[in-house]
Amino acid sequence: MQLRTDCKNGKKLSALGFGCMRFPTSGGRIDVDASEKLILSAVQRGVNYLDTAYAYNGNEAALGEILARNPGLRDKVNIATKLPIPRCQTQDDFDTYLSRSLERLGTDRVDYYLIHNVTSVGAWERLEELGIKEWARRQKEAGRIGQIGFSYHGCEADFPTLLDSYDWDFCQIQYNYMNEHYQAGTAGLKAAAERGIPVIIMEPLLGGKLASELPAAAQTVLEQANISTDPVRLALRWVWNHPEVTLVLSGMNAMQQLDQNIETANAALPCSLTAEEARAIEIARAFIAERYKVPCTGCGYCLPCPKGVNIPMCFAAYNTSFAHGWYQGMHQYIAASGAMEGKAHFASDCVQCGACQKKCPQHIDIPKELISVKRRLQVPGLPSIVRLGTRFMTR
Ligand code: SF4
Ligand code: SF4
User: Fold this and answer.
1) What tens digit of pLDDT does each residue of 261-317 get?
2) Same domain, yes or no, for 22 and 141?
3) Judgement on whether residues 189 and 272 belong to the same structural domain of the protein
4) Are 204 and 248 in contact (CB under 8 A)?
5) Average pLDDT of 44-48?
6) Mutation test of ligand 2: which of 297, 359, 369 has the most ligand atoms closer than 8 Å to its C-beta?
């Protein structure tokens, strides 16, 4: 496994980190046995950084179970988890959530602790007023936290101010070849590196858009240009090509993905992207920019919607209708409604309450975009027909 150095503490971190958020599931619950197989295989091949969060439903507990089942595993890995800041109203809440994370994980220390999803300087200032700096110092002294950092989904302009607002041990940003000028972007990556702050990368595949969802037309052009490269490998190689990147997180839920990512990580040294690969990225970037209308990554932070609208799947269907054709998008939209599970909710069920919008790290105007989804994919009478069909099928 390629190792990169955490320039703050000198640790050697695997270039590939395991994003536990997308652990495999079965019947709507995390499949701990399948997740365990993936984790053990990853660690055996050199992955030494596992990322989870308090807010990922059942995720810390699943990882804790895997660690408990495998004596010795804990000391082979760095564990990263995150403080859920919207729930923190007093300094005592910081203690409460860190303690719960430690308990769920069955460990006495978090190696990399992140303030989860800081979206603005104002959000950080609120935590400062609650005394987070002093609290973090005490936790580090007590050995409950190794390194302290933050994950970021705010704008490019706020990022340098946040970097300078505390003596951060690391930061985590969304970065991929479509997001060079989005959120922290390339400028943010370089700003962190200039300050000697290690950078962990999330969303290197933009929620899958740069992988299997790469528009068919882009793939065809790549083939016609005799550029034979796999979209996932290409996207990951682009991120690792930046010497400022310390580690790239990937949410792997199948052994095949793990195999491929490990193979890619081993070869993707800084500044190793070929001219042909760079050209392939230019082609893919142009196609994607034209066809993906809503920059939803499928993270699900906006859920649940009180009206049952499956927001990420609605946007996935909408984007599919441009990238792969209207019929395919329509098919996906009906699946997104939940009709197959005996209930059906459509974009038109949105009552514009706005509850989802403030939770979206991509700052998508969800109610407005759902109107676009409805206009494009919801042919007149569709909800009635689908609901009638659902009633018939579930009799
Ligand atoms: S604005 Fe619409 S989609 Fe968002 S939570 Fe409210 S009803 Fe659901
Ligand atoms: S709309 Fe926003 S919060 Fe919801 S899944 Fe998409 S990116 Fe995540």
Assistant:
1) 999 999 999 999 988 888 888 888 888 887 778 988 877 889 899 999 989 889 988
2) yes
3) yes
4) yes
5) 97
6) 297
- Phi, psi dihedrals of residue 110, rounded to the nearest 5°: -110, 125
Question: Distance (Å, rounded) from C-alpha 191 to C-alpha 172?
Answer: 13
- Residue whose CA is closest, atom 2 of ligand 2? 360
How many CA atoms does the CB half-sphere of 310 hold within 13 Å?
18
**How many structural domains are present in the chain?**
2
Query: What is the torsional sign of CA 273, 276, 279, 280?
Result: negative
| Domain match, 274 and 345 both | no
Looking at ligand 1, which atom is closest to the CA of residue 357?
Answer: 4
Instruction: Name all residues whose Cβ lies below 6 A of ligand 1.
Output: 305-307, 309, 311, 350-356, 366-367, 370
State the residue range of the domain holding 384. 311-393
Residue 147 bridge partners (DSSP): 112
Question: Any residues with Cβ below 6 Å from ligand 2, and which?
Answer: 296-302, 311-312, 315, 359-360, 362, 364, 366
pLDDT one-digit tens code per residue, 142-187: 999 999 999 998 878 889 999 999 999 999 999 999 888 888 899 9
| Nearest CA owner, ligand 1 atom 8 | 305
306 domain-assigned: no
Place of tokens 């308090």: 54
Contacts of 88-97 spanning 24+ positions with Cβ under 8 A: 88/127, 88/130, 89/130, 90/130, 91/130, 91/131, 91/132, 91/135, 94/130, 94/132, 94/135, 95/135, 97/54
> Do 228 and 342 sit in the same domain of this protein?
no
Q: Where are the alpha helices (DSSP H) in 155-215?
A: 158-163, 185-194
| Helix locations, the chain, DSSP H | 32-44, 59-69, 91-105, 121-129, 132-142, 158-163, 185-194, 216-224, 231-240, 255-267, 275-291, 311-323, 326-336, 366-377, 382-393
Residue 226 is given by DSSP the state: T
231 upstream amide cis, omega within 30 of 0: no
Average pLDDT over residues 307-330: 86
